[in-house]
Amino acid sequence: MLDQNAALERAVKVAHDLTFERKSVVKRSELEAAILRETFGSGIKIESVRSALARENFAESADGGELASREGLRHELSVLTAAKLGRNRLPPLKKFDVAKTSLDAEQCEAVRLIANSRDFITLCGAAEPGKATR
């Protein structure tokens, strides 16, 4: 039984890290499925997975169908607070000549807005769109 408990504890951590890597909120069923994949062949049942998740202290939607990591929520709050406190408090980054880039018109406008802003800027978006590489 101790081996199953250790396997379940490890699976919860791995599944948590994978499912919350790029999302703030996940479906409970998605996290349960990730845990079950991690424990495949160990004999761990869904009831044990649900009990383990209940001990994890997630923030839950009203219907319990979605979960949020409290650590992730704290991080998002700190980013939003920094952005709010940083409004109109900084010098613009620098003049940026977008004509010398391969950016499209929409990307050029985004760069121009960011470079000329006097605000603390946080750039958010889906994974892999090139936020850091363009």
Name the average pLDDT: 84
Q: What about the largest sheet? A: 3 strands, antiparallel
Rg is 21 Å
Topology order in helix (H) and strand (E) letters: HEHHEEHH
Instruction: Please give the alpha-carbon distance between the first and last residues.
Output: 51 Å
- Tell me the strand percentage band: 5-15%
Quick one: overall form? Answer: elongated
Oligomer: single chain
Poorly predicted runs of 5 or more residues: none
Percent of residues in helices: 40-55%
Count of DSSP H/I helices: 5
> How many extended strands?
3
**Order of neighbouring strands in the sheet with most strands:** 1-3-2
Class inferred from helices and paired strands = mainly alpha
In words, what does this structure look like?
There is one protein chain. This protein has helices at about 1-20, 30-40, 45-55, 70-85, 105-115; strands at about 25, 60, 65-70. By secondary structure, the protein is mainly α. A hairpin with a 5-residue loop joins strand 2 (about 60) and strand 3 (about 65-70). It is elongated, with a radius of gyration of 21 Å.
Summarize this structure briefly.
The protein has 134 residues and is mainly alpha-helical. The chain has helices at 2-19, 28-38, 46-54, 70-85, 105-116, and strands spanning 25-27, 59-60, 66-68. It has five helices and three strands, in the order αβααββαα.
